[in-house]
Amino acid sequence: MTTIEQMEEVTAKLKERACEVCAETWEDRVKKQTPHCKFGEDGVCCKNCSMGPCRITPKANRGICGADAHAIAGRNYLRMIAAGTSAHSDHAREILHILHGASAEGNYQIRDEQKLVRLAKEYGVPTEGRDIYDIAHEVADTGLAEFGKSFGTQIFIKRATAERQRVWKEQGIEPRAIDREIATSMHMTNMGNTADAEALIRQGLRTSLSNGWGGSMLGTEISDIIFGTPTVRTTEGNLGVLEHDMVNIVVHGHDPAFSEMVVTAAEVKELVDYAKSKGARGINIVGLCCTANEVAMRHGVRMAGNFLQQENAILTGAVEMMCVDVQCIFPALAPLSECFHTKFVTSSPIARIPGSIYIEFKQETAFDQARELVKMAIDNFQNRDMSKVYIPPMKQNAVVGYPCEQIIGHLDGVANSHVDEFGTYKPVIDAIKAGVLRGAVAIVGCNNPRVRPDFSHFEIMKELLRNDILIVATGCAAQVATKAGLLNREAKYLCGTGLRRVCDLVNIPPILHMGACVDISRMMLLATGIARDWGVDTTQIPVVGCAPEWMSEKAVSIANYVVSTGIDVYLGIEPQVKGSSQMMELITQGTRKITGAGYIINTNPHELVTAIIDGIEAKRAALGI
Question: For residue 414, is pLDDT > 60?
Fold first, then answer.
């Protein structure tokens, strides 16, 4: 296992190299931004019109329009949810357009026909006797209609338990068209509109549901159809996956359409031979952030690290090219890459960054563009300054790729009494009822410089494993587990006897990698499947969510759709609503009256993990197990 202290030693050494080339890193910028704006931290600064900005203080308890702290914090919070929903849902829209243009001869084909047919039947799209691409195009049309449908609700909410559907309907938070919920949120928070904090929270829950049970779920389903549903693969993680004698290309971001083409192009023999002709041993594709998760679980591509490691990759001096798509990309990468030979390439009009090489990726020419990028990286190999190269000798084996289909298949072996019922979650339920597993925690989210990066994830994961609690992870949280060696099957020796037995029986690591942050929708289906097979609602099962170091607006949307699904969420970073006592009460207690779940917030990871364990045990007691 790699410790946080060892990771920090590497970061410190790379920081020294940044100083040598007069480069700025996130650590430098944190110092310059400290102390943070107290009004912003508390969520009580309003700039939604030009009469302000207005700030709530003890002497000025209302803005110019009369909005108080509760209205301002509520509006700001809802706007974060809307922005996060738009990010994941626009990702899904792009993938649906890829599906709409897919063809047998094109750059993108159908890799999982069975999943496409299942989704077509769910959508009411005829399949009998039809060409698979005709089916795909009609499915894409139906999926795209979910963004702007004039009437009705999201189709996927029918996947939830009957009790969840009833709650959403009775509480008036059933998600309608995705774009409508985002637009409604922006309208409600416009100057002169909603000033009632609870109404803003309700719209936040509704908007987030249009993400988790709409856009995100669409993004995951359609990605599986086009690129293949992930299967279990062995790979490696951390900066040691970069190679001294190979052309190193880093793919970074969140949209698999771009990275899939780059990975495919890098495998072309002609380009591999070309790299060898330039003195390299070959081409080494590695991933950062959620794009890393996407290509790892479908191709076994190795993962260089998570969000706060993106600058470190360039600081190794060994990266010929960093190709990015959308989301979580530092604009600072452009000036940093100029300190080395690295070519920094942006590919989407959604993420234009000054100083980058901008090549807009297009579906019709995707593979040819990817070939050109790989060739550009190969040509850049000879420009590498070996005196600037330092690749940390640090990497860990990892087992990745556990969508719901894989989890069902693998965990079925836990309880032999249900071998005849393969395809259900009853074996998992038996293990939980017997106490072999105490429950499960979905650990998600970013890492964040407001706290010691990765430390909270690491400490919480180790303690949960010791207490026989299975972990499922996505996004940067999954990357932490990868870097530490916790996705290795040998990590079972950190577990209690019950979880270790489960790992032995079914040959799994104690932390199951479920994909990118968009794939948290898989976790909702996992929880729903367990609840349905148990005969209870999702709010009753001993399963919770945890985001120890979240930082993105996407995380706010995610946390709300998890809470809306009836699952408690434990946060290690305080939401920016502290300036409103009403908002704090609403997100921790008020939502429980609406959905049956809420936030538990504690910035101390050891206290937070104790609260998680207590919460799981309380759910077990309520179920009488």
Answer: no
